[in-house]
Amino acid sequence: MIGVSTQCLFDKSLSLALHKIKNLNVDFVEIVNEGYHELNRYNYKTHKEFLENNGLKSVIHAPFSDINIGSLNEKIRRASLNIIFETLEVAHRMESLLVVIHPAHKSPLSGKFPKAYEKVQKRSLEEIDRVGEKIGVKVALENMPSFWILDGQTPERIAELVDGTNIGVTFDVGHLNTTTGNFDEFIELLRDRIVYIHLSDNDGTKDSHLALGEGTVPWREVMKKLPKVPMSLEIKTFDDAIKSLKFLSELHSNI
């Protein structure tokens, strides 16, 4: 299954984004649940009906701006969790394939109390796992790009974070290209956990979400080894999403 993220139309309304993406030859839409694309218990029905009427499934990317499930300020952590729980509930009602979440990120305070940060983030992931299991929504933790405050940049760290839970893994190929660049290692270590994949390109230093083939990701080698799970193009512009779909089609015809 192949999909396109609404990120490529982040400055448009969700209705317009869905109308444009439906004209592409895709199986599902990944809705980035924030900004103009925010979903809630009041507006989801309209979007669910539109997707169903056009034969499309959905994946929901939980909000990540201003969210920190590893905050040592309990009020902020609890608010972050409640926002994610609401996303899980909406995903359940929309019969979405899964929900993508980000790991926690570090703060000046968590840098001073790293053990507390570890415990808090683990507790948050366990809570998210329990809620997801209870309502029947699959959750997948995404690996992060190179940036000093971001957690979960390596396959070993992602494995550590999901250990002891039923949370799956979203393998973001572009993100890994900015960190270790070792695609074989990520796939080998987490193959049984990977339930979803984000596709984008970059130059190996900045998470720029370029069209596939316009960066340094060795796509021919990577695509041969990726597990057979749903994949979404998480590209900066709509035109580049179209280019990337064409790139994938040509790549598959030559593999």
From TrEMBL:
<keyword id="KW-0413">Isomerase</keyword>
<dbReference type="InterPro" id="IPR050312">
    <property type="entry name" value="IolE/XylAMocC-like"/>
</dbReference>
<dbReference type="InterPro" id="IPR013022">
    <property type="entry name" value="Xyl_isomerase-like_TIM-brl"/>
</dbReference>
<feature type="domain" description="Xylose isomerase-like TIM barrel">
    <location>
        <begin position="19"/>
        <end position="249"/>
    </location>
</feature>
<dbReference type="GO" id="GO:0003677">
    <property type="term" value="F:DNA binding"/>
</dbReference>
<dbReference type="GO" id="GO:0016853">
    <property type="term" value="F:isomerase activity"/>
</dbReference>
<dbReference type="InterPro" id="IPR001719">
    <property type="entry name" value="AP_endonuc_2"/>
</dbReference>
<dbReference type="GO" id="GO:0006281">
    <property type="term" value="P:DNA repair"/>
</dbReference>
<dbReference type="Pfam" id="PF01261">
    <property type="entry name" value="AP_endonuc_2"/>
</dbReference>
<dbReference type="GO" id="GO:0008270">
    <property type="term" value="F:zinc ion binding"/>
</dbReference>
<protein>
    <submittedName>
        <fullName>Xylose isomerase</fullName>
    </submittedName>
</protein>
<dbReference type="InterPro" id="IPR036237">
    <property type="entry name" value="Xyl_isomerase-like_sf"/>
</dbReference>
